[in-house]
Amino acid sequence: MRNKTITSFFCLLLAVSALIGLLMPDRYYSEREKRTLTQKPKFTVVNFISGEFSGELEKYLTDQVPLRDGWVTMKTYMELTVGKRESGGVYICKDKYLMDKFTSYSKKQLATNASALADLQEKLAAEGVSMNTILVPMAAQVLTDKLPAYAPVADYAAILQVLTDAGIDTTDVLSALAAHSSENIYYRTDHHWTSLGAYYAYCAWRDVQANADEWTQEVLCDDFYGTTWNKVPLPSVPAEEITAWYKRINRSVSYNNGQYETDSIYERKCLSGSDQYAVFLNSNQAQTVIEGSGKSGKLLLIKDSYGNTFSQFPVEDYAEVHVLDLRFFKGDVAEYAKENGITDTLVLYGTQNFVKDMNIKGVAEA
C-alpha cells in the first residue's frame, strides 16, 4: 500500500511536470548524473508499430521532466519515510554511507575474464615478467556492519576463488581492508576507495607494514560528492575530502604516447569540474607513463578507475610505472610489456567492474 501511494504521487507529479516541460527547452547533459539526457524521439510509422517510439518517449519524458533532480531527492526521502533503505541501486546505510548495490553477476563473463588473465599471466611469465591481480571489494562487501538489515551482497571470496582456480596469482585485500573498517577507507558518496583504503591494499600487496607517517597527506578538496550521491542526492549527506598521498610531489607524467605531458599525477584543474575524482591521473586514459622514485624496475598497472588512486603508491617503488586502461588501450599487452622493459605487472579492478568488463577477454590475444 505504501509503495502504491508513493508511485501514485510521483506519477501525478511527473504528469504535471511533463506538461510544464512542453514550455521549457530540453536539457542535453546532466552534470549531476554525468550523462547525456534522452532527446525528443522522431516519430515514424515503423518505430511506432515496433514499440520503439513509445519506449524512447518514456525515457525522454523521464529525463526532461522539469526540476528532475529535486523530484529524485524528494522521492528518496519519501522512501526513507516508509522504511525503504535502497534507492536507484544504492543502499542507504548507517553513518551516512551510500553504497552501490552489488548482488549478482554473470558467472560466464567472470570465467571468461579469469581465463583471459590466466593466459596473459602465462605469456608474461614466458618473458620473465611477474603478474599479480587485485580485485578491490565493493564498500558493501567490506563495511557490512553499515548495511541495512538483511541487505544482500555478492560473495567476494567466491569471485576471487574463480581467479585462483584459474591459476592466477592474486592478493586478497579483503581482510586488510576489513581490519580497518572503522576508518575512512571508502567514500560515503562515491563507489571508490579513498587514498587511505588504497594505501592499506598497497601494503598488503607489497607485504609491508603500514606506516602512514612516511607520507605527506594533502587535502586536495573538501567539497566532493561522488557517483552514489549523484544517484541518491540526499542533502543530509555531507561533502567529503579527496586526499593526495605522496613522498615526492613532482614527477614527469606522459599520457597517450606524449599527447599530453605534465609534472604531477594530480591534475588539479579537475577539482573545479564536475568529476573531481579525475584529479587522480587525469581521469581514465588509454596509456600513461609515470616517472618513479625507485632506482630500478618497471611496473605495468592494468586497471580500471580504482587504479587511479592506487597509482600514488607504487610510483615510489619503481623507476617507471606504465598504466593501461583496457577500455581505451587496444594494443597487444604482452608486446607492450616486452617493448617497454616491464619487470612486474599488476592487474587491479573493482570487483563489480571486473565481473562485467567485456574488454578483458582480449587482453592475451596477439
Description:
The chain has 366 residues and is α+β, with helices and mostly antiparallel strands. The chain folds into two domains: 98 residues, no CATH class; 259 residues, no CATH class. Helix content is 34%, strand content 17%. The model has no long low-confidence stretch (mean pLDDT 89). The protein is globular and about 65 Å long.
Would you report the number of β strands?
14
Count of helical stretches? 13
Ends apart, CA distance between termini: 58 Å
Mean pLDDT: 89
Major sheet: order of its strands? 6-14-12-13-11-9-10
Please indicate the percent range of residues in DSSP E strands (runs of 2 or more): 15-25%
Enumerate the spans where pLDDT stays under 50 for 5 or more consecutive residues: none
* Overall spatial form: globular
Instruction: Give me the strand/helix succession.
Output: HEEHHHEEEHEHHHHEHEEEEEHEHEH
**How many domains, in number, for the residues?**
2
Structural class: alpha+beta
Radius of gyration: 22 Å
Main beta sheet strand tally, sense and closure: 7 strands, mixed
Q: Percent helix among the residues?
A: 25-40%
